Amino acid sequence: MKKNIIISSALAVMMLPAMVSCGSDYLQEEPLTGISDNTVNASEAGADAAVTGLARQMSTQLPDLKNGNINFNGELSARTVYGEGLSPDANFAEISYYSTGATNPSNFRTLNGWWAAWMYRYCYSLVYLSNTILSSVPEEGELSENENWMKACALTFRAHAYYRLMQVYGPRWIDSKNGEEYCLVLRLKANQPNEAPLNTCNEVYDQMYKDLKEAIELFKHVPENRADRGDNLFYPDASVAKGILARLAMLKNDYRTAQEMAHEARQGYPLMTAKEYLNGFSTTCKGWMWAPAMDPLGIYYWGFGPHYACNGHYVISWGYTTNMDWNLYNQMSATDVRTRLYFGPHVVDYEPELAEEFGVTKEDFYTVPTSTPRATLSITGSGDKPKGMNLAMWNFIKAYGKTFASNRPLDIKGIYLTNKYGMGLGCQFKFQGLDDGYTSCWPPYMRSEEMLLTEAEAAYMNGDVATAESCIKELMAVRDESYNLTATGDALLAEIKLQRKIELWGEGFSWFDYKRWNDVIDRKTWKADDADNCGNWPSKYAKKYEPTFMNGWRAAIPQGEFTYNKMADQSLLGL
Fold first, then answer.
1. How far apart are CA 38 and CA 316, in angstroms?
2. Which of 200, 252, 314, 342 is deepest in the core (most CB within 10 A)?
3. Are 96 and 102 in contact (CB under 8 A)?
4. CA pair distance 205, 166, nearest whole angstrom
5. Residue 542: which pLDDT band, with cuts at 50, 70 and 90?
6. Is 127 helix (H, G, I), strand (E, B) or coil?
7. Do the bridges between strand 288-290 and strand 446-447 make them parallel or antiparallel, or are there none, so unpaired?
8. Residue ranges of the domains in the chain?
9. Residues 430-446: tens digit of each pLDDT
10. How far apart are CA 204 and CA 454, in angstroms?
11. What is the distance between the alpha carbons of residues 407 and 45, in angstroms, rounded to a whole number?
12. For 467, what's the count of Cα atoms within 13 Å in the CB-facing half-sphere?
C-alpha cells in the first residue's frame, strides 16, 4: 500500500528554499538535518510543490551571502562568480570592481572567506532539499507515478549539486590518485547526523553515477503530462539527467560514458539557429534543455539580468560592461554570426553604413583603448563629455545596440546610454534583458550545444575522430557559413576547445573547463603594437595562473565543516 503523506498545504513545501537559505547549510552550530515526512505530499499537487521548491532553490537569493554588490542568488551566480569571475576569456567587470577576490584564485585557500563558502552552502542546500524529498518516498514497494517523478527529480538535483561541489572543491581527476583522494562529505539521508567522515572522489562519483542512472530509469515511468514539461524547463527530465551524467563523466575523464550520455541527452533538442542565438538569451527556445523559471523569482534586481545583461539596470546605471577577451575575439571569423555579439572590429563588416556614418574604421579599435575606473579597457574613453574618436565610438556603439531590435521582441535602444565610464573593448550583446521592470535575463542551465561540444571532446579523447569532426561541422553549419574544418590531431582538440569557449561564452563554463583541461589561465594586457597576441585586461587583473597554483585550483572546504563535524578529518585532504 502506497505510503500516505499528508500536509495541510502545498505552500509548506514551496517554502522549503526559504527555510534552507536561512540556516540549513550543514555548517550551523545546530544544523537542521531534516524535515518531517509530514511536510511532503504524495499527491500530484504536492509533488509539483516539492519539486518546484527544489527548483526554486536554484534561483533563490541568499541574503547572507554577499560581498560588496555581489549577492549570491543560486545557480546563475554560481556559474557567473566562479565560472566566469575567474575566467581568462571573460571580464565580468562588476565582479572585478566590487570584489577583486572573485578574480583572484588565491582566495581558494581562505578557510573563512566568502569565496570558498558560497558554492559550498548553495550546493549543500540543494543536497538538503533533495534528501528531504527522497525521505518522503518509500524505500520499498511499488512507487506511484508521482513518487517516481519526485524521486527522479530529487536524485537529479542532488547529483547536480555534487557535480558543482566536485568542480570547485574536488581535485582534477589526474590529481586524484585514480579517485582515491578524499574530497567531500556524502550526505544521502535527510535525518542523518551532521557529523560524517570525508569520502573519496570514487565514492562521490560512484554514488552520483548510481543516482543518475536510477533517475534516468525512473523518468521512463512518469506520466505523459510530466514527460512533456512545456515551458516548465526548471523541472529536470531524463535528458537533463543524462546531461549531468555526461558532465560528471568529463570530470572523471570517463570519456566513453561522457560521449554516450551527451549524445543521448541532446536528442530531440535542435541547435539554436543564428537568429535564436542573437535573440538575447532571455526567452526559451527548442534547443534549451534545462532553464530557470522566466520570472524574477522574488529576487528582482538581484537577478542575472540587472547586473550582467548588456542593457541591465545596474550595467546602465553604474557603468559596468562584460567583455570578451580580445585574444579570444581575435580567433573568431568575420563570417561567424557570433561575432555580432561583441563590440570589436568585425562590427564594421556587419554594419558598414553605420561605421561610415560615424567615421569609425577597424583601425580605430586598435588605437582608442584606454584604462578606466571600472575594471575594463575602454574603447570609448570615459567621462560625461567624450570628444573626437571617443565620441564617434560612443555614438557607433549606441547605434549598433539598436540593430538588435529586429532580432528580439523588445528594443534595447537604451543600451549604455548613461554609461560614463567607458565601454569595454569586446563588450557583449549576448545577454539582453527584457523590458519587464527588472531587465530580467535567464540563460539556460543546459542546452544542446553544450552536449554537442561535450560529445565532440569526449569522442576525440576516445579516438573517435570522425564523430568529433562531425559534431564540430554540425555546430558550425549554423554559426559560420564559410567555416571549413581542416584541423587534425592535437589541432583538432584545440579547435573543439576553441569552439566551446566561443559558443558557451559567459554561460559559466570557462574557469571550470580550464581547470578540467589542466590549462594555464593567462590574462594578457593590451598592447597596441602587438594586438594579434595581446588581451584586453587592465594590468591590475592581468595575471597568469599555472594549473598547479593553489593546490590545483582546489578551493578550501569552509572551516565550519570541520568545526561542527568532528568526524571529518581535515588532514585527509592534504591541503
1. 47
2. 342
3. yes
4. 9
5. confident
6. helix
7. antiparallel
8. 310-407
9. 999 888 878 889 999 99
10. 21
11. 38
12. 18
CA distance 527 to 536: 8
SS3 state of residue 332: coil
CA-closest candidate to residue 41, choices 94, 88, 80, 3: 3
E-assigned strands of 255-404? 288-290, 322-324, 370-371, 377-378
Instruction: Report the Cα 244 to chain-centroid distance in Å.
Output: 13
Q: Give me the phi and psi of 438, to 5 degrees please.
A: -125, 10
Average pLDDT over residues 96-115: 66
Q: What angle do CA 540, 543, 547 make, to 5 degrees?
A: 150
Q: How far apart are CA 19 and CA 143, in angstroms?
A: 28
- CA–CA separation, 466 and 468 (whole Å): 5
Class of residue 173 by CB neighbours under 10 A (exposed 0-12, middle 13-18, buried 19+): buried
Judge contact between 471 and 459, C-beta under 8 A.
Answer: yes
Q: To 5 degrees, how large is the angle CA 185–CA 165–CA 262?
A: 120
CB 169 within 8 A of CB 120: yes
pLDDT tens by residue, 135-155? 989 888 888 888 999 999 999
What residues contact residue 450 under an 8 Å CB cut-off, 6+ apart? 243, 504, 507, 509
Closest to 147 measured CA to CA, from 221, 228, 236, 56: 221
103 band by pLDDT with thresholds 50, 70 and 90: low
In the numeric block, which cell numbers belong to residue 376? Answer: 575594463
Which pLDDT score is estimated for 21?
37
Q: Residue 260: what pLDDT?
A: 98
Specify the pTM: 0.91
- For 53-79, b/e burial (b = at least 16 CB within 10 A) is bbbbbbbbbbeebebeebbbbbbbbbb
What would the 3-class secondary structure string for 529-551 be? HHCCCCCCECCCCCCEECCCHHH
Calpha distance 132→255 (Å, rounded):
33
For residue 357, the one-letter residue type is E
